[in-house]
Amino acid sequence: MLSVRGVVVHHTKGRGDPYDIARGHTLDRGWPGIAYHFVIMGGPGASSVFQTLPLDMASYHAGLHNRTRIGIAIVGDYDRGKPYPNDLHACAWLCGVLCLALDLKDPADWVGPVILPGRVVAGHRELFGATTKIGKTCPGKRFNMNELRELTALRMIDIGATDALDHGIRFPQGD
Predict the structure, then answer these.
(1) pTM > 0.85
(2) Which residues make beta-bridge pairs with 69?
(3) Cis peptide leading into 172, omega within 30 of 0?
(4) How far is C-alpha 95 from the geometric centre of its chain's CA atoms?
(5) How far is CA 149 from CA 16, 60, 90, 135, in A?
(6) Any idea what DSSP says for residue 13?
(7) Per-residue model confidence as pLDDT tens digits over 123-171
(8) Taking Cα atoms as reference points, which of 98, 93, 79, 94 lies closest to residue 6?
(9) Taking burial as the number of CB atoms within 10 A of a residue's CB, which of 24, 82, 130, 162 is the most buried?
(10) What is the CATH superfamily name and number for domain 6-167?
C-alpha cells in the first residue's frame, strides 16, 4: 500500500464469518482474497474483531482508494436495520486504534484534545471513486457515519486509559 490515509467502513449485506466472506469474494467475484483488512462480527452479544489482511496489503474494497485506505466490514445489512450498539462501538474502537497507531488525521478536524477523524474515517459511499455503482449505500442507509466518527473521537481519548476488553471486544485467537 502507499501511505495509508484513512479507513473505509463497509457492511457485508448478509451474515457469515470472515471465511464465508472470503469464499464469496474469491469464488463469486474472482478476487484473490477477502476484500477487507478487518471484519467485525457480533450481534446482540459481544463483538469479535478479526484481522483478515495485513495492513500493508492493498485489497479490492474501495475502488480508487484500495491502496490508501484500510477496509473494515461489519457483518450485517444496514440498509434494513441499524448496527448493534456493541458492533458500532467495536468499529469506533478499531478506528480509534488505527487512527492513533498510524497517525491518521486531518488538521481541519480538531475536537478537544484529539483530532476527530472526519474525512479519515469514511463510509464506502462517501468516497469519490470508491464505487462505480450509482446510488451505492454502503455501509447502509441506516448506518450513521457521523455517530461513528463521534464515537471514534471518544475512543481515541479512552484508548490510552482503558483496555480493549473493557469495551466488550474480543480478538479471537488464530489457529
Answers:
(1) no
(2) 6
(3) no
(4) 7
(5) 26, 23, 12, 22
(6) S
(7) 988 887 777 677 789 999 999 998 998 898 888 877 655 554 444 444 4
(8) 98
(9) 130
(10) Peptidoglycan recognition protein-like (3.40.80.10)
Q: Determine how many CB atoms are found less than 10 A away from the CB of residue 130.
A: 22
Q: Report the C-alpha gap between 164 and 169 in whole angstroms.
A: 6
Looking up cell 478536524 gives 109
CA distances from 55 to 1, 4, 38, 69 (A): 8, 9, 9, 9
Distances (CA, A) of 23 to 1, 2, 54, 62, 87: 23, 27, 18, 19, 23
Angle at 97 between CA 93 and CA 101, to 5 degrees: 175
Nearest to 112 by CA among 153, 155, 63, 77: 153
Per residue in 33-50, pLDDT (tens digit) is: 999 999 999 888 889 999
Q: Exposure string (b/e) for 83-107, b if CB count within 10 Å is 16 or more?
A: bbebbbbbbbbbbbbbbbebebbee
Report which of 101, 107, 74, 78 is spatially closest to residue 155, judged by C-alpha positions. 101
> Of how many residues is the chain composed?
175
pLDDT, tens digit, 9 for 90 and up, residues 5-42? 889 999 998 888 999 999 999 999 898 899 999 999 98
Task: Give the span between the Cα atoms of 145 and 151, in whole angstroms.
Answer: 10
